Amino acid sequence: MKAVITGAEAVAHAVRVVNPDVISAYPITPQTHIIEKLAELSERGEIKAKFIRVEAEISAIAVVIGATAQGVRAFTATSSHGLLYMHELLHWTAGGRLPVVMAVANRAVGAPWNIWCDQQDMLSQRDTGWMQVFASSAQEAMDLIPISYLVAERTFLPVMVGLDGFILSHTAEPTELITPSEVEEFLPPPDYPLRLSHHDPFTLWPILEPNLYHRQRYDLFKDHQKALKAWKSAFKRWEEITRRGYRAVETYNTEGAKAAFITAGAVSDTVKYALDNLFKNEKVGLVKLRLFRPFPYDDIREICAPFEKVIVLDRAVSYGAEGIFSQEIRSALGGACPVQCCVISMGGKDITPEEIAAVYEKASKIPEGVVIWS
Amino acid sequence: MELKRLKEQMEPGHLACAGCGAALAMKLATKALGEKLRVVIPASCWSIIVGRHPDTTLKVPVIHSTFEVAPSIAAGIRAALDALGQKEVTVMVWAGDGSTYDIGFASLSAAAERDEDIIYVCYDNEAYMNTGIQRSSSTPYGAWTTTTPYGKRKHKKEIIEVMKAHRIPYIATATVAYPEDMIRKFKKAKEIRGFRFILVLSPCCPGWGIKESETVLISRLAVESGLFPLLEIEKGKLSITHQPSFIPVKDYIAPQKRFAALTEKDVREIEELVRQRWERLRREEA
User: Fold this and answer.
1) Which residues of chain B have pLDDT under 70?
2) Which of A108, A188, A332, B86 suits a disulfide with A114, CB 3.0-4.6 Å?
């Protein structure tokens, strides 16, 4: 069944169908509609989850940590400063190997205040040990929730699902609603081997001596790499059930293209429109980064190596360096293809198809190392 | 005595300093609460005391928490246990005064306001002892710490009054010098639903400058001098569970090196605090 719903409603619907036991969240624009809907469903008894209304985001993730360590599925959602406020416990969740899923309505961070969209919030949490995926439509935001739970519960690594604040979270579009039977077929009930029990008591996360700690970090690193396979098999399984397919890296119009834009999130549709309408004389493609952690190095290399140039449209910056996606892609390509960084929009600055065409023009005139601020 | 009949949940080999009040307190608390328990320990001396992987001194399940969110982790565990139908399991936070009075105060207050069904224990050693004796808002007036080298110039936060303002179903204070009183309070707390707060005064030998053999004695002097009233507050109703003999405050202060620099005037200041506190307690009890 199709419905015209926002990205926030799409996430809430997915959570309703996935049916966790515990939800905890603290409101922040533009995540609020996700959790308001879930609070209402919980209050009306339409979902079994207990909704714990905490005093701060750091406690929202703490509740989810406690619930997951006790062996049940849990959910939270946040954005921007809320995500940053969770920072310490993002490390704790991943280090603790808890299969948590969290939606993040991507938003700029202050100061100065800005409530609109960029990806600085999530990408600044790159090194916390969480896996990261980006949606570029309400449909994708919905589908990525059950997919993320499956991968999280198979790898014991937490997942952030990013959806563009306002652009996706608050914009209604026709979306195929996932059904309980689809999710039941796709996602087995949670069965966490390590859960607190008085029948077999143990101490969770005690002090590890340096050699063991080092080994534990190695396992975390290794399991992230292995998780790429889990994503690919989860995407495939989802496609078998729903006929909606996803890839770690997706492409558009790249066959025989001499250059390509690379981006993630809703801006990719703007790029597609620009390519279809404003690039009549030149064959330029789009590479859409769906999965950011674990980073799909091989896919990026395979797809991008034949291009004469890639132009990365960044919406998150490592100050003193360049765009965060650009850094990652440059490192993946290792010189196989020049990488041009363009910071296209911070804090919700409009991105038009004409601007995409202008960026392409500009990129042809300046040397590779110079960062374009569009 | 009942104390001996209760099953030990804490085994030898913990990593506390000799004479640690907090180690003794955990031994009594877990005896009273029994094995169907979850213990949430935020960053504190007890993060160390419980043991280093693969050793653990507790026979009950323990989960380590970061400094500021132990009540929220406990709330998550509680919700999960309820979802799993394990309502008979008790969830206890075991936090120091750093977590309780300071860095974790927001999550403590919020969990109390939501009336989460957990027991929150503050083992109060009146400073940040795990990092090497720095003042907390629980450090008493006049006490030396490494960050108050000439003695703290503020009284400690009245945490019982603060918790009382949350109108939670049960509040109690206890010390290891009165084990029967402490066991009875933990057992009572176990049977009550909702947010329960227990403050346990826990002398710290290196931090207070007392001998390893003096933990129980100092705990008793704290109570008998009137500085640490043994009380419980059930649904807002206060009862004093031990009538102190009001020995001079000096008798409590003199054996502790942390109070070495106190003047006569400082002692009078503390005596005045005790007098005012008991005036209030008597009024409230009546």
Assistant:
1) 1
2) A108
Domains of chain A: 2-242 (3.40.50.970), 249-373 (3.40.50.920)
Cα dihedral: B65, B71, B76, B77 (round 10): 70
Q: What string of DSSP letters covers A226-283?
A: HHHHHHHHHHHHHHHHHS----SEEEES-TT-SEEEEE-STHHHHHHHHHHHH-SSS-
| Beta-bridge partner residues of A263 | A288
User: pLDDT tens digit string along B11-68?
Assistant: 999 999 999 999 999 999 999 999 999 999 999 999 999 999 999 999 999 999 999 9
Residue A208 contacts B where some CB pair is shorter than 8 Å: yes
Residues of B in contact with A201 (CB under 8 A): 35, 58-62
Distance, in angstroms, between A367 CA and closest chain B CA?
A: 47
Residues 99-158 of A with CB under 8 A from B: none
Q: Residue ranges of the domains in chain B?
A: 2-285
Residue-wise pLDDT tens digits, A267-316: 999 999 999 999 988 999 999 999 999 999 999 999 999 999 999 999 99
For residues B39 and B85, give the distance between their C-alpha atoms in angstroms, rounded to a whole number.
19
Q: How far is CA A291 from CA A68, A134, A209, A249, B36, in A?
A: 24, 7, 33, 7, 42
Helix (H), strand (E) at residue B99: none
Residues of B in contact with A67 (CB under 8 A): 76-77, 79-80
Superfamily per CATH, domain B2-285: Thiamin diphosphate (ThDP)-binding fold, Pyr/PP domains (3.40.50.970)
Residue B78 structure tokens:
């509680």
A58 to chain B: closest CA residue? B69
Structure tokens at A74: 């849990």
Interface contact A227, partner B, CB < 8 A: no
What residues in B contact A23, CB-CB < 8 Å? Answer: none
Judging contacts by C-beta atoms under 8 Å, the chain B residues touching residue A74 are 76, 80
* Probe site for chain A from B10, B41, B58, B69 (most A CB atoms < 10 A): B69
Q: In this structure, what DSSP letter does residue A64 have?
A: H
